[in-house]
Amino acid sequence: MIEVNEINQNVQGRQVLNQLSCSFGKGRIYGIIGPNGVGKSTFLDILSGVEKPAQGKVLLDGKDIFTYPRKQLARKMAVLQQGGLPPVGFSVREVVGMGRYPFQSWLGGDILESESIIDTAIQSMGLKELTHRKMDQLSGGERQRVALAKLMAQEPSVILLDEPTTYLDIGYQVQLLDKVRAWQRERDLTVIAVLHDLNLASLYCDELVVLHQGTVAAAGTPQEVLTAELIEQVYETKISVSAHPLTGSPQIMLQPSEY
Amino acid sequence: MLLLAVSIVVSLSIGSAGISVCDVWGILIHQLPWLSDKAVPYSAGEIAIVTQVRLSRVLLAVLVGACLALAGTGFQGVLRNPLADPYTLGVASGSSVGAAFIILFGLQTAIGLWTIPLVAFGTGTITLLGVFWLSRNNGTMGIETLILSGVIIQAFLGAFVSFMVSMSQGVVNQILFWLMGSLAMRSWDHAFMLIPFLAIGLPVLLIYGQALNLFVLGERHAAHLGIRVERTKLIVLISSTLLTAAAVSVSGVIGFVGLVVPHLIRLLVGPDYRLITPLSAIGGGIFVLWADTLARNLMVQKEIPLGVVTALIGAPFFAYLLHRRKLKQGGEI
Description:
Strand order of the largest sheet of chain A: 6-7-8-3-9-10
Structural class of chain A: alpha/beta
Helix content of chain B: over 70%
CATH architecture of chain B: Orthogonal Bundle
Largest interface: A-B, 29 and 24 residues
Structural class of chain B: mainly alpha
Oligomer: heterodimer
Order of helices and strands of chain B: HHHHEHEEHHHHHHHHH
CATH architecture of chain A: 3-Layer(aba) Sandwich
CATH class of chain B: Mainly Alpha
Helix content of chain A: 25-40%
Largest sheet of chain A: 6 strands, mixed
Distance between the termini of chain A: 45 Å
Distance between the termini of chain B: 26 Å
Number of strands of chain A: 12
Number of helices of chain A: 9
Number of domains of chain B: 1
């Protein structure tokens, strides 16, 4: 579905990505993990077609991502941005409706079909009571739900999430990722998420891609990737790994250096 | 729309020539082609004042206001900067430098009637680029830096215009006119000159209404939703600059119209640019029409420059916006 071929990228004169190659298959949830400053967000910018790599190619369904017209790309791929939506004066429904933009002609046509899609998106994110509220009257967690509802209205087949759980409390984190997974299963979507929290990544992702020093240090299922040796090498800190009592997925426990 | 019609009627009826309201309308009705053969009880001078001076001036005020308010809407939308307008960005001053230069050297008709608007557009665009270049910081433009750059450029260009004023003898008044902004001594030609600019600028900004809505979420969000961000910015900025240049070339620098009007409209109808854009055009017309009506009637013998009136209203409003922004730092547009 998505092929990444030997990407190089520099940010402010520093080489961030170095000969990075990997591929993402249809209908799976991928987690991209790695230490700060390793270029996870840069990588996601390139995947979403916003930033051009200095070298290398990204192929979406076999076609170079930069040859897609922007609106056509937006119909295939949607992005949940880091930091979420700003508290603007638009109502929840208006913002979710913006997700339909890629389907509108330049005169703003194709509204009829959109209405029911917008309603469904609002419903499934549990935003019905807030439909006519303004964005600037919502909490950060609620705004993040609106952002996801907007993504749903966009009806993509690939979604990219850039640290979707930052600034959310644990209740909202689990709620948001539950919604993403339910939606992913329903539509057989490809999800690529940059995640900071390794334990959440392990619980929700089918496969993890570990970035280290500008390239892929490891890739595979959480069981294969989240080993004490690899994490120590990449994050330069000692950890213990144990299985989650309910799901069996590997979970990481931090340890102060004196032990 | 209704308010606009009422404003036009009232403004037409008020004037310093001492013609009664009944007479004004009598003259206007007689101008209708199917009534013009009847006996005319009015003097030629009175007719000239109403049709040549007052009617054209009212129309011009409406058009200039619409241009400036539209330009302000465009700038605010694309820059996501609530304090942006042709005046605060220095575009209006830039345009006036070009216009003053042309007048100083008596080149008004070098390439026909369009000389001044075209030159004004050129210098306005260069000014805008200069302001962007000054305020650019790692590829992003901070709201305050942008306004500061606008002020700096404005001061610099103001000095230029003052220099030109001091170098010339005969045309001083004409150049001063650019600095203060006025609709006095304009004719039908000037009004007609604005119409093509509006006819292009308004539809372009209307088409980009939904795109500007998405810009409110941020450029990244807009890009992810399928907007060609750079192209949209370029087209909206050029349209807005063109509208500004056109307005400035007939009326001089009239400040704050593009700032005040879109904000008031936003307070009334909410943040949707598909509504703000057309309503700003109408609102701008009403605002400048009233400001001009005040300008020519407030003092008995003299006329106050229009730019003075709009600045007297606009500057406090600007201060208010700045203050409110400080209260809710980092808040919405």
